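Sample intake — Transcriptional regulator, TetR family
Collected from: Nonomuraea pusilla
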Amino acid sequence: MGSARDSGTAPARRDDGTPRRADAERNIATIIATGLELFGRSGNVSMADVAKSAGVGRVTLYAHFPSRADLLHALVRHAIEQTEHVIDARPADPSEPADLVLGRLLAAAWRVLDRYRKLRVHALAELGPEQLDRQHDPIRHRLAAVVARGQEQGVFRTDLPADWMITAVFSLVHAAADEAESGRLAPAAVPDLLRATVLPALANPRTRPPGAESR
């Protein structure tokens, strides 16, 4: 990471170490904001559309994002950075049970994912699930810390690999996004549904009754 290809925010310096000009930073910020808006409405978005809506020339656009895939990488990274900020906005109390922390994390992450559901659809189609999955590493690390904490507290089960439980959580969240995008699930209902599904799945069966809901 660290290039325009995979970062939602441009580095302050170029690859050769020289500082970026202020107007270049402004152009990049405008292109990112415009791209998020356009891809949030339709998948039929060309680079020319982005340049026109952003008020920049195509040469300028391609100088920062040489291809549509480069731009999509940057848009996804921007969305994930917003998820990081939302999750980190309320640091967890060390004494707070991990299941409550996870329930709050799921709700916070959903608020951002719901905003960028259509972008996710386009990114999956054009970048592929493997590249998109790698972009989620920062969120995965945060989730891994919560799962490890829950296992230490005895709240989460330890008979399954932590990586598998994290994968299951991601799968359920993304399944909810697919259902909401298809219209089969109301976006507002997703946080409660995720808590009611994820938390019992991770709960330590020796300390919590099967199907127990979060507090």
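Post-analysis note: The first helix runs from residue 22 to 39.
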